[in-house]
Amino acid sequence: MRVVTCDEMRAMDSEAIHTIGIPSLVLMENAGTAIVRVLEDEYSSLTDRRVHVLAGSGNNGGDGFVVARHLLNRGCRVRVYFVGGRLSSECQHNYEVFERLGGEVYRMDSQSVPKLRFSLSLGGIVVDALLGTGFRGQLTGLAADIVETVNASGLPVTAVDVPTGCSADTGAVEGPAIRAVKTVVLGCLKQGLLLYPAAEYVGVRKVVDIGIPRSLEPDSRKYLLTAENTSLPSRAAHGHKGTFGHALVVAGSRRYAGAAALASQACLRSGAGVVTLAVPESIYGRFPPSEVITVPVPDTSLGAFGSVSQDALVSMLSGKDVLILGCGLSGEGETAACVRTLLETWKGPLVLDADGINALQGQLDVLEFAAEDVRQQWVLTPHPGELGRLVGRSAVDIDRQRVEEAAAFSERFGVNVVLKGVPTIVAGQQQLCFNTSGNHGMASAGTGDVLSGIIGGLLCQGASGWDAAAAGVFVHGSAGDEAVEHGGCRGLVAGDIINALPAVLD
User: Fold this and answer.
1) Statement: 241-505 belongs to CATH 3.90.226.10
2) From residue 436, how far is each of 13, 17, 272, 486 by CA, in Å?
């Protein structure tokens, strides 16, 4: 499913109206009738049902008047609560049509909120067509009072395009906002409805066609990542372990030995033919024999990789198809220098995570040592704090502009970026997607290491950097969902995700 910004949606509207010649009133009529169909699907018969429509003076309000007219024609007890001043021409037209049909419009002011509260106490459903995708900032005054009154009523709300008070671009909610049970999204899905905190207010999303030609969709490829558009690498029936790639995992330290085990096991469980794990020598004894080939490497007195490790690690690059670097490493200076040496040497597919990413702080030129076509096979998997450290921003700032920050870093360096969070965003190669799988049980230590291993395993099997990043993210979340099916959400741990991988990848 295509995802757009509000500016992109407005450009599509404008071109449909002014270039193609589809009248704006036709698009508004299409929107209103589509919303009514959604209401009928949700509530079955609407006859004699009480419906409270909140309408503003813009085109979102115009959609609301179309909805109110069709509901009136279906025998609903409809009242429109109008808020605003000068109406758009389309809103004015549908306002007048509704009134000529005997529809009841109540013009709201600061003295009428108690009357709205009483009306809502009589029951029914609410349609929120108060403010549209052009809203920015914080609701105040009458609009804020109305929103708080509606939320306090407990009545189910269906929002038109975006719940009032939410930014349809950034997902920001800076004050009171409608808490909808369903949002009917017009034309294309707006990216802010996928981002938090707005995503908490949206309820169930339902995207409806309002007649804008698909040929007008923007060139930028932004979409929802689902099972239908997730591409896994094919596997030859006559293949052997060499066919499916040999990964080198450089990971672990005295404090974080578990990260190394999780990343390497996840890589193997995702289909890699052979996985070699390089760990600091002083923790080698903590890794029992398994399918992973574990190799001790000289380390520092702190139990981490350092200058003493570099020669051994560089020699291990030979004959490997994929490098997974960073899980559970120490953040000390010697380790960071070791990471940079490996990056300057390695010229193949790469997954860079955690302290591997932190090692680039102030040293981003290291990313440019590799050729452009090589970097297209590189996947960086930062959380907002790690990406923020690279670009000199706070984690909060990164989260406020998740889409823009991930896309900008990917475009600047030609790498694929997996910006972890809810939703996880994958950016690279002139495209960007929003993940739809996963659950809050995955918010526990080690799940990021598992993600790195999964992406590395897909790279081993010949997936492109983009496909490995996108599919890896979706598979990771799906394995978390599978694990929850059998063990619950609250107690989910990273190892449960690894155990669920065979079922998800089958």
Assistant:
1) no
2) 27, 33, 25, 20
